[in-house]
Write a structure and sequence with these properties.
Chain lengths: 415, 415
């Protein structure tokens, strides 16, 4: 029995370049495209792949905090700039911190299941280079509880939250093992990004990635247990993905073989006012993955491709445990042994992930889904991994805050 | 034929006090409840009216700009504070400027229609008294296009936008007529609010309301064509409303006679980067109302109660024209003739509206729906209007920005 009351497909998708430090075309002092540009570029890049964009019924825009970085809200109002036929159609902006993009996927699917639309354009977008990193860190801290934990928090609030997670893992499972897994995660991220022309680390030529990953933390200027290479960068970018019913695919002229089926999702919300139950686990991500697998009727072993939310290398380590591909405390070794590499047991973040592609926060959940869909459609170009005929599934898991707001979605290659 | 694929009901709802200047308990220098409080108070006030809140499946939170007023995002993370059984359930935060609450209603309905849930708690919330009004006006200006119109805009951006609308109406239809309609709108708003203990203007004892409404604008300190009484106030508040399927009503122990049916809605998005096509019209609101009526299979004359988005008195005048209860250019006379009063042709904003109840922006759309539902259930206490047996419908229309983002929803009394 299907989890959804009717078939839902994802077809065309598009990611912009993730712009920020590391990209050759980025210069902190030069003017850069605004949020409108990324919404339009991602939207157009997607609808150019289909016939008749007039048949797109609605839009959803995922964005975390344009109110701060761009002094801009009412973001649905940028949907009509993508295509003239979108004028006076509905568009909803959703926010769930760094899971905002994941929530855009969820609302898109709900709208089609509701029989209110046949084709939905989900867009994720974020601008973060508009202010210095230290101010940006404060804006992004809006994902944590302002009246609570943030009052006594670190200037780099989220890096510090995940630094504490790394410290807890060092203590519980041993520094060498966890640190090696984190550094190998960094190596894989950059190596994968070098094959993805849209990735922020595409131009990274560092020949000593592992040594760089092992850089000692400097608590005087940053965090206690992690270094700056353990962190996803400050990024501007947008992503878009089209969802359609069976009828919708016909309306936009997409053959079912050029679409993947969305088989299930799970969205899980933890309480923002309580501390994580266990610093060595992404408990909410784990619940979301378990629910998603159960609803899809599959096991982690059925995945050919996985995309997890590695806002920090330690988050990557914990995310593959939460996704059930590695056991508790075993993620670091799993990574060190090459099992998450593109030719490994479960290719994970094959396009670079948040560390390699970049992390335009509100775009990330959509970007992850676009990349999983491209993999299942064999359209991932240099980043393509092997989709096993008997493992036709891919999953993405997107996380907002410190394991607070999570959306996981399972896709299946069509016959 | 129904617009929705299955029956959707709204049942229990709750509005907090709209706190701000005018309320006796408000003092600008004294500590006030935060956003967490209003989410919890509105949510609890609602779920206390039903059996078994554990059967609530999901939450939706409408909020405009807590990122500025409260330095807080990731708002879905406050859903679990309402009730322990909400932990790890989904919650989505939606934003559409002052229509954020309206969008929360829309996503709630989509989720039930999608067969993903039977009972949804929609919450709207906003805090605005955390900063001085002039800063607040800048935060709220996020509803307009920052890179465009706002660059050359007025310090009181939105008041000025609607002041220009008033000026255009004065020029086209005559100052005396329009001004009289605006002032009468103010009178009705305060008179209705005096019967609503939750209203910000509940304590207003001014015996000369019409004269106050006629106060001359002072462009030196405010706007050219409107005075401060033409504006909804700065408000903190929250509202919540439960939506359920037929099965959902049973699960929460609500009899169908204690619920109203949601018969249709229309959500319409105009382009944020273009000026309004006609300053003397709320064109997007008009499209939304027309679509909502058509989908509900009714005419404006079938309504017994109407709640429109009077962020300014001129918006009230134009909103009743957009809702089709008064003809183009005839709204002001319609109001002056008492036709929108609680004993008039179409009782409008019977609980005070945004001018009288207050305008905690992200809460407003939910507040409007709560009040329409209470009217149809005969639970509006001192504010109750006559629900004609042959006009069993009520409509709310919520607007974000300068007629940019609109949701209109039609409810029907059950047998």
């Amino acid at each position: 029995m299907s989890f959804f009351r009717k078939k839902i497909y994802a077809c065309a998708g598009f990611n912009t370049v993730s712009l920020g430090s590391g990209r050759k075309e980025f210069h902190p002092k030069k003017p850069r495209p605004g949020i409108e540009h990324y919404i339009k570029e991602a939207g157009l890049g997607t609808i150019e792949q289909i016939e008749n964009p007039a048949n797109i019924d609605e839009g959803v825009i995922g964005n975390f905090v344009a109110e701060r970085f761009c002094k801009q809200g009412n973001l649905g109002g940028f949907f009509p700039i993508v295509h003239p036929t979108f004028q006076y159609k509905p568009c909803i902006r959703v926010e769930g911190a760094c899971d905002s993009g994941g929530l855009a996927l969820v609302v898109s699917i709900k709208t089609i299941l509701a029989d209110l639309a046949d084709v939905i354009l989900a867009i994720g977008v974020e601008i973060q280079n508009s202010v210095k990193a230290i101010y940006g860190a404060d804006y992004l801290a809006a994902a944590g509880w302002y009246s609570g934990e943030r009052k006594k928090g670190h200037a780099y609030f989220f890096p510090d939250q995940f630094s504490q997670r790394a410290g807890a893992c060092f203590e519980k499972f041993g520094y060498d093992k966890i640190r090696a897994g984190m550094s190998q995660w960094y190596v894989n991220a950059i190596e994968n990004a070098r094959k993805n022309p849209k990735a922020q680390e595409f131009h990274n030529k560092n020949p000593e990635l592992y040594a760089t990953g092992m850089t000692s933390p400097n608590p005087k200027v940053f965090c206690e247990y992690i270094n700056v290479f353990d962190c996803s960068k400050v990024s501007d970018g947008g992503s878009a993905l089209l969802f359609a019913s069976e009828e919708g695919l016909k309306k936009i002229g997409v053959d079912k073989k050029d679409a993947v089926e969305v088989v299930a999702y799970a969205q899980v919300q933890d309480n923002l006012t309580t501390p994580p139950p266990d610093l060595t686990k992404l408990s909410t991500c784990e619940i979301a993955a378990k629910r998603a697998y159960e609803r899809a009727g599959i096991k982690p072993e059925d995945l050919s491709v996985l995309d997890v939310h590695d806002c920090f290398t330690i988050a990557g380590v914990l995310a593959i445990e939460a996704a059930g591909v590695a056991g508790y405390g075993e993620g670091a070794d799993f990574i060190k042994d090459g099992k998450t590499k593109t030719d490994g047991v479960i290719p994970t973040n094959a396009t670079g992930g948040l560390i390699g592609y970049g992390h335009p926060t509100g775009a990330t959940g959509v970007r992850q889904a676009v990349d999983v869909v491209h993999q299942l459609l064999n359209k991932a170009e240099e980043c393509q991994v092997n989709i096993h005929p008997d493992r036709p599934f891919g999953m993405m898991s997107s996380m907002g805050g410190n394991d607070k707001t999570v959306a996981a979605m399972v896709f299946r290659k069509t016959e």
